[in-house]
Each structure stands twice: as structure tokens, then as C-alpha cells.
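Response to reviewer comment R2.3. The reviewers asked that we include at least one raw input/output pair. We reproduce the pair for Ester cyclase here without editing.
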Amino acid sequence: MSLEQNKAIVLQFYKAVNQGNLEQAKEMLALNIVVHIMTGSVIRSSDNFFEHLQMARSTFPDVYYTIETDTSV
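Raw output as returned:
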């Protein structure tokens, strides 16, 4: 997969999350995803990360993620 294809997937993922379409966002995740949260926690698996997203959306329903530069994508 090219760098541009990877960037497109990341942008689609955050668009789905921002629109509250978490099921669509989950479909873009690798089953064995490992996510390092700013608190130092590590989330392993798409199911666990999906639960984290659901909790975050219920706690902060108006959360909106903005990608300011694509150099880190």
C-alpha cells in the first residue's frame, strides 16, 4: 500500500469518527491494532479500541479530531 493510500485511510477513519460512525471506523482497523494512549495506557485489538472510542464519544459527544498536517500520518 502506498503512502498516499495510507493517508487516505487515516483521513477516512477520522472522518467516520468525527461523524459518530464508529462502526465504519472500526472496519478500517487491523484486528491486532496496538494503540498507545497519551495516559501511558496501551490498547490491544480492534475490539478494545472500539470500546475506547465508544466510551470517549459518550463522555465527549462533541469531540472533533483535526489533522493539521499529514506529515505524521
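The mean pLDDT is 91. DSSP finds three helices and two strands in the chain. Further pairs are available on request from the corresponding author.
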